[in-house]
Write a structure and sequence with these properties.
Radius of gyration: 29 Å
Strand order of the largest sheet: 1-2-3-4
Oligomer: single chain
Largest sheet: 4 strands, mixed
Number of strands: 6
Shape: elongated
Strand content: 5-15%
Order of helices and strands: HHHHHHEHEEHHEHEEHHHHHHH
Length: 416
Amino acid sequence: MMESNLVPSATAPAPREENQLKKLVAEVEQRAPDDAIMLLDTASDAVIAQVLAMLNPSSALNILLRFEDDRGKRILAAAPAERREQWTRNQAYPEGSVGRLMERPVALFRPEVTVQEAVEQLRELVKRAFITYGYVTDQAGKLLGVLVMRELLLAEPTQRLHEIMVRQPFYLNPQMNVVDAMPLVIIRHYPVYPVCDEAGRLVGLVRGYVLFQEQTIEISAQPGRMVGVEEEDRLATPWWRSLKFRHPWLQLNLLTAFLAAAVVGLFEKTIEQVVALAVFLPVFAGQSGNTGCQALAVTLRGMTLGELKTGQEKLLVMKEALLGLLNGTFVGVTAGLGMYVYARIQHHDAAVMLAFVVFLAMIASCITSGLSGALIPMGLKKLGADPATASSIFLTTATDVVSMGVFLWLATLLVL
């Protein structure tokens, strides 16, 4: 794969064909991989290969791998040799890794090459690829340095490349997760990053915008996954596929809601004797749920951006517990006053005690919610599950059960 998103072809397409191709690429970019396959299914293998060549490497590979084996092989055969080799190489790396985003390096030079010789080679290379940097490697392919075009321009024609190259350049590892790579590249802002294996051999390039694009897609998908909307559920997704993605989540959410209802059912007699308690049940469910979602959002953001390092988990848990205590105290005062006013309107004899129960229960609920929002995604990650996908439903269950359960238990203990 070349240092370009342009389609390498011996014969350039006609203007009308090129416009149709760009339109098809734009439509594919708006679709999930499975939906993109449905759109491309009637196109020829050659057209599909051209479309995939104009996508970023990760998107192209995700679509290519979802075609049936025979069709996928034909599409590969229709692609230029450079693309075919790079797609095959990228496929060997895990999903979400830097290796899935690689392009093939083109401007490769030996250290003994002169500036004049390098410039002459570049004049030919730029005709078929967009080149940002040159790369100096030894015979084994090990990266020795990076050539910046400004240095080439200012150097003497007889100088050797090893004299002007940037030595010990920064590079990424193809096995590295994109999430882990982002903190390293965000402070550098290079347009292109070399990718080297454990032995330091140059195996590919990854463009800065592709890394940021991949991370943006990941972050934008998180809110959807938290409520059962899969990453592949887009605006252009057919309704029956959206139903397939979303409905199982709703069934599971219903089962967990039954658990919260069962907890309320245990205190049915208490609610019958103090009807005011039923009025405040939604208050606890909403407040504790919101507190938990705040902690969950911060935790997931830290995981996604690589800010949550090993050893920092304890500090995060302590912080969320403290915030839960403080928020619960302040909100508990307001909620307690609300219960007092309502109980007095209802002429209840235990208005003060009911207000105190609300105050204590709100503190307990917010602490539990904050802890759950931090502990649940971290626990799921250690178990190998996607924290964003699974956390929300467990969080909702925990906050509903604890908040309403503690509230009704305290009312039974202190009021009746």
